[in-house]
Amino acid sequence: MRRGEILTRVLLVEDNEMNSDMLSRRMERKGFQVFIAKDGLEGVSMAGEVNPDIILMDMSLPGIDGWEATRRIKAAPETTSIPVVALTAHAMASDREKALEAGCDDFDTKPVDLGRLLEIMEKLLSAS
Questions:
Q1: Which pairing describes strands 2-3 and 6-7: parallel, antiparallel, or unpaired?
Q2: Has this prediction a pTM greater than 0.85?
Q3: What are the sequence ranges of the domains in the chain?
């Protein structure tokens, strides 16, 4: 996806290599520039380094989980405005509420439905 002539930069925070490989390749084919972090700490660090347009955050991560990583990203002035989409296999209403309370801007379930995820991303990107 292009915003003007600039590729939309996506930070994918995902510890499962098969999931990150599959999703990043699918998103790159759609025109996104994808950066991958393999755990929560790396995700927090990369959010400040690569300044993505949007972050896709797995919630079940080693080290610090996606909820804590999102709290840290939203607490830092330089990354607070970056939209974060929670990605989780847990689809209960309480999981959505927990993600939103941690600072996520939206929520999607795994396995990822690319069309649905792209709609969420477009909504958040057009609002920022």
A1: antiparallel
A2: yes
A3: 2-127
> For residue 36, how many other CB atoms are within 10 A of its CB?
18
Distance CA 111, CA 113 (A): 6
Q: How far is CA 114 from CA 2, 32, 61, 68, 110, in A?
A: 17, 13, 21, 25, 10
Per-residue model confidence (pLDDT) at position 51: 96
Homologous superfamily of 2-127: Response regulator (3.40.50.2300)
Residue type for position 29: R
